[in-house]
C-alpha cells in the first residue's frame, strides 16, 4: 500500500509541473486589474493548481526525509568502517617501513613539492637553454630516482604524487633528448691505464677503438702526442657531425675531408673549398686557425 502511495505521489510530481506549472503566468497589479471575470477565474484556478503541486511536492519530500536520513546514517557507518580499515592498514604499512614519523612525512612532501616546482622551471626553458643545463638536469633526475628508492616513498599517501612526477620526469628526459643539437660534445675524465684506443672502444663512447682519432683531433689543445695521455685529463667527446672546422698545422682540404667526423672521404674536399671561397683563394693553401664551414646539405 505504501509503495502504491509513493508511486502516485511521484507521478503527480512529474505530471503536475508539465500540465499546470508550465502554463502559469503571473500578472502584475496593473495587469490584474484589467483581467475579465473569466480570466480572473482561470488565473485563480491556475494558482490553486500550482499551489497544490508545490504542496504535494513538499509532502512527498517531508515523507522521504526519514528514509533519506536512514540512508545517510548507513552511509556514514560504511564510510567510517572504510576509514578505520584504511587507518589500520596505513599503520601496519608504516610499521613495516620502520616507523616513519609525521614530521618525516611532512618533510618528504616538501621535497616532492620542490621537485614539482623544479619541473615547472625546466618546462618553461627553450630547447637551447634546456640542453645547456643538461648536466644539472641529469643530476636532478638522478636525485629524483634516489628519492623514489627511499622507504618513505612507499607510503601509500605518495602513490599519486609519484605517478604524476614519473610522467613529468619521463617527459623532461624526452625533451632533453629532443633538444640535443646536431653536433655537441660530452666529456670523459681519463683514468690510470687508459689510452685513446681504449676510450674510443667503450660502448658509451664510440664502441669502436679505431675512431680514437676523433677524440685526439677534438683535444689537440691538450694532447701533444696521441700515445701520451694522463689521468684526470678531461677530454671532449664529439657527438654528431660538426659544421665548422678549425685548421691545425699540417692539414689540407684532402686530409680534413677524409676524417670520419667530416666526410670520411678525401675526394669530397671540393665541397669544403666551394663553401669557403671567401677565405680560400687557392685550395692547396689553407692556414692554421682558419675556421672553415663544413656543408651538411
Question: Can you describe this structure?
Answer:
The protein has 297 residues and is mostly helical. It has eleven helices and four strands, in the order αααααααβααββααβ. The chain has three domains: 91 residues; 77 residues; 110 residues, Membrane-bound Lytic Murein Transglycosylase D, Chain A. 58% of the residues lie in helices and 7% in strands. Helix 1 crosses helix 3, helix 4 runs parallel beside helix 7 and helix 6 packs antiparallel against helix 7. The longest helix is centred in the N-terminal third of the chain and has 60 residues.
* CATH topology (fold) name of the largest domain: Membrane-bound Lytic Murein Transglycosylase D, Chain A
Counting DSSP E segments of at least 2 residues, the number of strands comes to 4
Oligomer: single chain
CATH class of the largest domain: Alpha Beta
* Helix content percent band: 55-70%
| Amino-to-carboxy terminus distance | 89 Å
Strand content: 5-15%
Number of domains: 3
Report the principal-axis shape.
elongated
Structural class: mainly alpha
Overall CATH architecture of the largest domain: Roll
Sheet with the most strands?
A: 2 strands, antiparallel
| Average pLDDT level | 86
Spatial strand sequence of the major β-sheet: 1-2
List low-pLDDT spans: 1-22
For CATH, the homologous superfamily of the largest domain is named as LysM domain
What gyration radius follows from the Cα positions, in whole Å?
40 Å
Secondary structure tally, helices: 11
Amino acid at each position: 500500500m505504501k509503495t502504491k502511495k509513493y508511486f502516485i505521489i511521484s507521478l503527480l510530481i512529474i505530471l503536475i509541473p508539465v500540465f499546470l506549472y508550465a502554463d502559469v503566468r503571473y500578472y502584475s497589479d496593473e495587469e490584474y486589474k484589467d483581467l475579465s471575470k473569466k480570466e480572473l477565474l482561470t488565473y485563480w484556478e491556475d494558482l490553486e493548481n500550482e499551489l497544490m503541486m508545490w504542496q504535494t511536492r513538499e509532502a512527498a519530500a517531508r515523507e522521504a526525509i526519514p528514509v533519506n536520513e536512514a540512508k545517510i546514517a548507513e552511509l556514514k557507518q560504511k564510510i567510517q568502517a572504510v576509514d578505520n580499515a584504511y587507518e589500520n592498514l596505513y599503520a601496519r604499512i608504516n610499521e613495516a617501513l620502520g616507523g616513519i614519523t609525521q614530521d618525516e612525512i611532512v618533510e618528504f612532501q616538501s621535497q616532492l613539492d620542490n621537485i614539482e616546482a623544479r619541473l615547472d622551471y625546466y618546462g618553461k626553458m627553450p630547447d637551447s637553454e634546456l640542453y645547456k643545463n643538461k648536466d644539472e638536469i641529469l643530476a636532478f633526475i638522478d636525485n629524483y630516482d634516489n628519492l623514489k628508492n627511499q622507504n618513505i616513498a612507499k607510503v601509500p599517501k605518495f602513490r599519486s604524487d609519484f605517478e604524476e612526477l614519473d610522467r613529468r620526469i619521463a617527459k623532461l628526459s624526452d625533451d632533453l633528448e629532443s633538444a640535443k643539437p646536431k653536433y655537441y660534445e660530452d666529456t670523459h675524465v681519463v683514468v690510470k691505464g687508459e689510452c685513446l684506443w681504449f676510450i674510443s672502444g667503450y660502448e658509451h663512447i664510440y664502441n669502436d677503438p679505431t675512431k680514437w682519432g676523433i677524440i685526439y683531433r677534438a683535444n689537440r689543445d691538450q694532447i701533444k702526442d696521441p700515445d701520451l695521455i694522463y689521468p684526470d685529463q678531461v677530454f671532449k667527446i664529439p657527438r654528431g657531425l660538426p659544421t665548422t672546422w678549425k685548421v691545425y698545422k699540417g692539414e689540407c682540404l684532402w686530409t680534413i675531408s677524409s676524417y670520419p667526423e667530416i666526410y670520411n672521404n678525401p675526394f669530397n674536399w671540393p665541397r669544403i673549398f666551394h663553401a669557403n671561397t671567401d677565405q680560400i683563394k687557392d685550395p692547396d693553401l689553407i692556414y692554421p686557425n682558419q675556421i672553415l664551414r663544413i656543408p651538411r646539405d
